[in-house]
Amino acid sequence: MGNSTSNLAPASQPGSPLQVCLNAALPSSALSYPQDFMYQTISVDAYNKRIPVIPAAVTTPSTTDDISAILKCAVESDVKVQALSGGHSYGNYGLGGVDNAVVVDMKNFQQFSMDNTTWHATIGSGTLLSDVTSRLSDAGGRAIAHGTCPQVGIGGHATIGGLGPLSRQWGAALDHIIEVEVVLANGTVVRANNETNPDVLFAIKGAGASFGVVTEFVFLTHPQPTSVVQYSYTVELGSYTDMWPTFDAWQTAVGNPDLDWKLASELIVLPGSLLITGTYFGTEAEYEATGFEKAVAANATNVAVSTIDNWLGTVAEWAENEALQLIGGTPSYFYSKSLTITPDNLIPKSGIVDLFNYFEYADPDTLIWFAIFDLEGGAVSAVPQNSTAYGHRGALYYLQSYALGLTGLSNTSMAFVEGISSTIQAALPGQNLGAYPGYVDPLLTDGPSEYWTTNLPKLKEIKKAIDPNDLFHNPQSVPVGA
């Protein structure tokens, strides 16, 4: 039994010129089409089930020649292309974000090698973060900064930002990139580094989905941390209106310009509670000397501080925490928004009170919602804004707000998420806070400006030079310069 294709665009129809071209270029095992049995469930498997997407084809190339051939077929049929690595875009942008795109699934690009002289690692763009961690660890006890969800693919993660607990020390994942191999819209395969194709490297480091298909990265690596302190402080005071002083104390503590870069922290508002959690990369004595616990834990009803001496154990605990928040690798119905808070635009106390009143009285219409305030800054902010495409070097912390449903998500739940952001925005009038492109929000009025801010004009010019016909496109990709 196949899928119905009667309502699909011509390129998605059985026997279309696109399918004929792809069939001639790749083996049948590397191709899936809408007419195939359980196409949407097996081949597409959209991460955000709230946004249904039907690609014209899902391809799984094994070589750069395969990718070049796929791009040629897409161009001839005037169909857009998006690469997929892990497939965790909040807007399903790795699937095109809208119907009728050609998906280039990079799961076969798993190459890995380590130069034991320079400690530069070559990693295929289809590698999931769990495998990045283990392969780097096995190759001399090395590590890079990246996020905590093990099922995320490095290809998307490192070309959009790639933020995680180590970012305050080492920078974003994209700050570790020394060189990439990328297939451009005209089918050519190029290397890009600071000396060769530097504009391509600039664009890939923050806006990669708009510019090509990255096949591999060369990363700068670091010795993996040894002693790591994990901490959590839970506040359950019965009412959100009683929790705002804890948020105020946390924001004051993380807003200290002398805050130790070895400290990573999140404040998470959950149904019925508030949690401050994070990692300190050092000893418990060093962590205690920062004074962070004294500053933020006055109202904690539960305190947990422990040392983990095993690096892989630390990463596994991060993954477990991610799974508990239900934003890991499981497809679901959800809506998410992000906001960028800078040291110069902290939420005033009156705005914090308003925010926690909102948490107390607004209707989420779901049992699963949360708001994460995730500390950034440090080494990420030390990199000049115009050195990569990444547009939020000044971020002190990001808000990530979520509402999830198991069988669907109501308009009331989506409005609840919108209200979290609008309450904060109202407390900071006239400020364009911007959004992190790793948490895409298809409902933004002008996503590219929110994501890439002052770097967008340069990105438009690079787009015009290397992808003038906008082959690599999703609903919020970098537009072609005028």
TrEMBL record:
It comes from Mycena chlorophos (Agaric fungus). It comes from the Eukaryota. This is Reticuline oxidase. PROSITE patterns: FAD_PCMH, OX2_COVAL_FAD. Belongs to the oxygen-dependent FAD-linked oxidoreductase family. GO terms for molecular function: FAD binding; oxidoreductase activity. It holds the Pfam family BBE. Residues 51-224 form the FAD-binding PCMH-type domain. PANTHER family: BINDING OXIDOREDUCTASE, PUTATIVE (AFU_ORTHOLOGUE AFUA_1G17690)-RELATED, OXIDASE, PUTATIVE (AFU_ORTHOLOGUE AFUA_6G14340)-RELATED. The lineage of its organism: Eukaryota, Fungi, Dikarya, Basidiomycota, Agaricomycotina. Keywords: FAD, Flavoprotein, Oxidoreductase.
